[in-house]
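Structure in, sequence out. Go:
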């Protein structure tokens, strides 16, 4: 099996917040001799975030950096999702501003998330 197949499975599980299934697939991926890529880390941030495991999602972000990867826009968008889902306005705002500094045009969904969390927090 190829690493992209494992990453695709992990990503699919992440979309559903199925972090246990994603973790089992990661174990199989490692047993097959493949290492985590930035896409793998990003999927785990999303999986843990969707499962409501916000601390775990943030830890994956730190693990990504410790592994020598530089976060990309997908990484930051995944973290923004985590903060918004948790109702962490200040963290979401800081993440959003950091994303704007990176340079590329942000996705419309990033703006929508900020509008949504701002409305929920009456800001």
């Amino acid at each position: 099996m190829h690493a992209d197949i494992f990453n695709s499975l992990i990503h699919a599980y992440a979309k559903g917040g199925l972090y246990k299934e994603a973790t089992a697939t990661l174990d199989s991926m490692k047993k097959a001799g493949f290492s985590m890529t930035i896409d793998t880390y990003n999927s785990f941030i999303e999986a843990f975030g969707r499962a409501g495991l916000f601390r775990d999602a943030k830890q994956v972000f730190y693990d990504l950096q410790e592994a020598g990867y530089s976060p990309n826009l997908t990484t930051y968008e995944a973290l923004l999702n985590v903060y918004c889902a948790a109702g962490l306005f200040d963290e979401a705002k800081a993440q959003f501003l950091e994303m704007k500094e990176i340079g590329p045009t942000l996705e419309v969904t990033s703006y929508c998330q900020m509008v949504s969390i701002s409305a929920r927090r009456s800001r």
